[in-house]
Design goal:
Elements: E1 2-13, E2 23-24, H1 32-43, E3 51-58, E4 61-71, E5 85-87, E6 90-113, H2 119-127, E7 143-156, E8 161-162, E9 168-172, H3 173-177, E10 181-183, E11 193-205, E12 214-227, E13 230-232, E14 237-241
Parallel strand pairs: 2-6
Antiparallel strand pairs: 1-6, 1-7, 3-6, 3-9, 4-6, 5-6, 7-14, 8-13, 9-12, 10-13, 11-12
Length: about 250
């Protein structure tokens, strides 16, 4: 199969975790839905195009930044001593919050559309984007250092691949259950963070036809382990691109 390989650098970025509010925490790498959203936006797709995503990379450090936070309660009238802003007759509170930022991020992303006839089309949109790409927030610009089409094949490793002190990756959980790799940390048998990453959603209407109110319903999530302290065993069969980089795909879907 073929896929698009992106080499990306970002100066400062927040891949927001949806359950964080007072401090807008970030995922350590962009979640699958964020990458898929970027691809759909740059390609101008109005319908969902099914695709698999492999994400690996690293960052130098973390820092925090201030942002302006607006809060309001549905139907609450404006009170001068309570609210900073008045919108029509309703009150809005304005204050500050904190955003967690990753600094000096480098990524290797593989995009594998289920419809392989879309590979060249997606490549063209990513190679020559109509606007400067962003990944994360709208202001989190992404510098595409390389965009290329690569052949991806399952191969048997002739030697074990040691990722310790190198890249981190979102490792599909079935790679662990199938014992394709060893993950060990100091003082523990399992080093990493387990995430259930959002991947695909659909919109459903909570309102009426005349006054629609849409909400996301996540219909597909993927369980992964984020780790940078692992070894993939010799003789294991894993997806590898033509340049020798491991592609972290959920093999149960293959």
């Amino acid at each position: 199969m073929k896929g698009i390989k992106l080499i990306i650098h970002q100066d400062m970025v927040n891949y927001r975790r949806p359950t964080s509010f007072q401090l807008r925490e970030t995922y350590p790498l962009p979640p699958l839905s964020t990458v898929i959203g970027m691809v759909h936006n740059l390609c101008g797709y109005q319908q969902y195009e099914s695709m698999d995503i492999s994400v690996q990379g690293d960052y130098f450090s973390k820092t925090n930044d201030l942002y302006t936070r607006y809060e309001f309660k549905n139907g609450m009238k404006f009170e001068k001593g309570r609210h900073q802003l008045k919108v029509n007759e309703f009150g809005v509170g304005r204050g500050i919050g904190y955003t967690e930022l990753l600094v000096d991020v480098n990524l290797i992303i593989h995009i594998i559309p289920k419809d392989q006839s879309k590979v060249k089309e997606i490549y063209q949109f990513l190679k020559y984007p109509a606007e400067f790409p962003s990944l994360g927030r709208r202001e989190d610009l992404a510098n595409f250092e390389e965009v290329k089409i690569v052949e991806i094949q399952k191969q048997e490793l002739s030697n074990e691949r040691d990722f310790k002190d190198q890249w981190h990756a979102y490792i599909p959980i079935n790679w662990l259950t199938d014992e394709k790799l060893s993950i060990e940390g100091e003082g523990t048998d399992l080093s990493g963070t387990r995430f259930i990453l959002p991947k695909v959603y659909e919109l459903y209407n909570l309102g009426t036809e005349k006054k629609p109110k849409y909400k996301r319903n996540w219909i597909e999530r993927e369980e992964v382990l984020y780790s940078g302290d692992f070894i993939i065993f010799e003789e294991e069969i894993v997806p590898i691109d033509e340049e020798g980089d491991i592609v972290f795909l959920n093999l149960e879907e293959e």
